[in-house]
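Example for tutorial group B:
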């Protein structure tokens, strides 16, 4: 994402899974959503407060947004949005008016705290828009490719969250039944020595006094195999009678590539500015009667 600010980019926050991003751009509140197909962010909506926007925050699941407009105008206060609409769900403008400075929100978006300079006051709000029982996985990202050792992480929020414990289920079944952690008070679990090339599924169950409070979604990840790459064309020590060559290769899953070329084996130059996912590249403008060396770099 590359976005120019209209005047002053003063605040930025992102949901725990990276799907949603919110930015304070002087008087504009802008929201962005990550595309699962292009792996890029695009603007979802924006709203112009016509005055200075001091701070923004987004809930862990990206469903709720809080923004504070700060100084010397009729819009001073706290504004609460759903990710799906630029129309506020609620606005707080306590009297007497004064400048606001910062805002922070609980993971589930149910509790918001804001500060302003009137009597050096902090304000805390709670409302029914967000669920009082909240459980959200955030790492590794759903359907991701990861290394052999994995740290499963989640967040939770609720009035009784301090009394909650968690069971973690993980195995190779689409509906995992193997309990790998029981009654843990921590919101993470380290899974080690997993099998390369294998897909795993996992979920978290929140409990209080042995009663199930909430069960998370089932997420999945795959363990990365050792990267491999094989060159197909041109052949080694091959004589080419044109001034352009198409390099072709194959590689293991989810790799990105960069072709290097030069007339000395220890002085190769990258042939493109960006790493690519495709497994071929045409290079033109080569000199005749010249020996070239090449290699293909890869990373995951």
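The residue assignment follows.
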């Amino acid at each position: 994402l590359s976005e120019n600010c209209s005047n002053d980019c003063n605040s930025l926050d992102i949901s725990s899974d990276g799907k949603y991003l919110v930015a304070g751009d002087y008087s504009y509140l802008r929201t962005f959503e990550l595309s699962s197909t292009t792996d890029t962010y695009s603007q979802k909506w924006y709203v112009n407060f016509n005055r200075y926007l001091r701070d923004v925050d987004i809930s862990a699941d990206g469903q709720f947004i809080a923004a504070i407009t700060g100084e010397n105008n009729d819009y001073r206060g706290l504004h609460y949005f759903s990710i799906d609409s630029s129309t506020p769900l609620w606005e707080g403008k306590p009297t007497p008016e004064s400048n606001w400075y910062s805002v922070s929100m609980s993971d589930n978006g149910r509790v918001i705290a804001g500060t302003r300079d009137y009597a050096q006051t902090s304000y805390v709000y709670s409302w029914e828009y967000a669920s009082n029982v909240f459980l959200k996985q955030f790492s590794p990202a759903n359907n991701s490719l990861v290394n052999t050792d994995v740290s499963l992480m989640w967040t939770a929020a609720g009035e009784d969250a301090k009394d909650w414990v968690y069971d973690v289920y993980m195995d190779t079944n689409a509906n995992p039944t193997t309990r790998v952690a029981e009654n843990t008070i921590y919101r993470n679990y380290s899974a080690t020595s997993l099998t390369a090339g294998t897909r795993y599924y996992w979920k978290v169950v929140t409990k209080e006094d042995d009663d199930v409070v909430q069960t998370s979604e089932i997420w999945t990840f795959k363990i990365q195999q050792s990267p491999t790459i094989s060159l197909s064309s041109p052949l080694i020590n091959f004589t080419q009678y044109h001034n352009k060559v198409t390099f072709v290769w194959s590689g293991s899953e989810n790799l990105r590539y960069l072709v290097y070329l030069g007339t000395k084996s220890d002085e190769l130059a990258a042939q493109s500015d960006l790493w690519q996912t495709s497994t071929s590249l045409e290079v033109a403008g080569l000199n005749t009667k010249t020996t070239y060396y090449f290699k293909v770099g890869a990373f995951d």
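The chain has a mean pLDDT of 86. Compare this with the pattern of hydrophobic and polar residues in the output above.
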